[in-house]
Amino acid sequence: MEVIILQEPSDVTLAAALRIRRVMMAKADAVLGLATGSSPVGIYRELIRLHREEALDFSKVTTFNLDEYIGLTPQHPASYRHFMQEMLFDHVNIDPKRTFVPSGLVPGAEMDAYCLRYEEEIANAGGIDLQILGIGSDGHIGFNEPGSSLASRTRIKTLTQRTRNDNARYFSAPEDVPHHVVTMGIGTIMDAREIILIALGESKASAVASAVEGPVTATCPASILQMHPRTKIIVDEAAAIHLQRRDYYRWVFEQKPAWQKDDCGFAATGGDAP
Ligand code: PGA
Asked: What is the pLDDT of residues 75-124, one digit of tens each?
């Protein structure tokens, strides 16, 4: 697990976007795992800019989103399908058939089979090359709330009241926030070949500290990332304030050879990569 602390939120989202570009340039048909919420907005803005100004090509890319609210239509302004269309898909040359967002409209009796199919679609696409994650103030990833099985697969979950409160800003009234969601499981997320979790702002500082420096526990689902072989945690200064070893993470990053920093676009030249 690599912890990278950057000054500003825009530095964090730029670093994540440049890593996505790197993956897409290495593999034109890359499979990306995408997240919604306020954290990744800057990532998508930068990807759109890279598409428009530097011809970043999405034509062969496949995307899988983490989650969706149960009961919201794709047109609902707070649905994650709507979010993805507005924030990214409508602005780049991605094939709509290759953009997968779980449906929140599947009848209850068919949900188990639907979730299994979502997992199969990920496998059929070749698995996720790079998964982008935010983190909930309660340590959730996707909508895997505290207590979720660390081996869970795509399924229905019930949101905590804290998450419903955190997300109420997207709805006209707090009681409109659905109680249920469909989300990739923690096991599904852990299957990704590479993961970048980003966190912005002080409201995420406790969750980030538990995820990075606490025990691996279902009480903080993001802590499972300590077991993932290729994960970067990229945070701004405010989200890093409760990290005990933050000076060490900064020092490690400063010592990196240019080619390693370039992995996230931090260095202008590739240097002597192996
Ligand atoms: P946020 O949500 O980016 O809107 O803070 C993150 C999350 O809940 O995973």
From this structure: 999 999 999 999 999 999 999 999 999 999 999 999 999 999 999 999 99
What is the C-alpha separation between 71 and 106, in angstroms, rounded?
Answer: 8
Rounded-to-integer distance, Cα 6 and Cα 238, Å: 10
Ligand 1, from 166, 171, 195: best to mutate by most atoms within 8 Å of Cβ?
166
Give me the amino acid identity at 120: E
- State the distance from the centre of ligand 1 to the C-alpha of 48, rounded, in angstroms: 21
User: Is 69 exposed, middle or buried (CB count within 10 Å of its CB: 0-12, 13-18, 19+)?
Assistant: buried
Ligand 1: atom nearest CA of 141 is 9
Which residue's CA is minimally distant from atom 7 of ligand 1?
136
Residues assigned a catalytic role: 67, 138, 140, 145
